[in-house]
């Protein structure tokens, strides 16, 4: 009876729902709904391509939905950042001519062989043993090896450097060793996700330029990673100041490398919104039909995005009050952090519409306690507020 519908086009049929509120009023039922606006995805892709001073690629893990990958591929995406043989197979199937950047710096030997068989163009490394593994498996002349740097910089929603990346001295040694294999040498970094501070990119680019200068090598490319912010707070994310900082950072290099970025969140998050239904209200507590084991799994680590209340009877919204939001499972951890301000009239049957749901929602949902199924609907627009234009 309840099924997932993916409608991979954005044509708004007259009389057909054109936004999430209309769709929910007509079709809303028992399941949460992921609203997908392909026009918003294309607009954001254009904004990156017009503003970023280099090649724009896409980090598949942010949203591996086939409609997303196919759309970006159809728009000429030159390369995808992949982290596993399954992601490699997905991109090869949907976008056979795009290049593969295998930028998960820890790979088993079997994973390296799968990457070689698929013709991976670029490999990131942050450790000598991992580099020797690549060399032993035959990665060398003809491939690009990108040394991943880590610095203690702040500004992101959480720190990617705690897991991956080589500190500057090791990065320098890795660059020399990578050059000795005959590979094209590049550098890469990831400032941390949802990073709104252009200074993080500047700091990384300066450090990369210093390291490269010490080696005397010529860097083929500099991949400034992902980390670009989405409009989680309901505003328009400030991408252009970051693009400008990256363009300025290039002047630090004696021989400027080609630039690449590999956004995940910044490219896809704002193309989707997630509607979750209120199953019950008890005072200032709301019990929802999805939570941290499902589509809202990122909330405990980076907070709750802007939430709008959608009522089916157009009730006046009234003054906002703080609410505690619980997910549907019988597990007391299934609760969103802090309190969320919503109109005091919120009631059973209403919907909460979460912004920036296009990243780290598809692909990270579990079926814990029997929850985790959702509907997906294509809409012609996500928002009515003028402060949030497409893209
Ligand atoms: C996850 C990831 C990205 C994308 O990060 P966002 O914060 O979503 O932009 C880019 N590059 C690598 C290597 C990643 O692991």
UniProtKB/TrEMBL annotation:
PROSITE patterns, per database record: ODR_DC_2_1, ODR_DC_2_2
Domain of life: Bacteria
Gene Ontology BP term (one): putrescine biosynthetic process from arginine, via ornithine
UniProt family annotation: Belongs to the Orn/Lys/Arg decarboxylase class-II family.
EC identifiers of the protein: 4.1.1.17
Presence of the UniProt keyword Heme in the record: no
Active site positions: 330 (proton donor)
Pathways involved: Amine and polyamine biosynthesis; putrescine biosynthesis via L-ornithine pathway; putrescine from L-ornithine: step 1/1
GO cellular component, one term: cytoplasm
Listed name of the protein: ornithine decarboxylase
Gene Ontology terms, MF aspect: ornithine decarboxylase activity
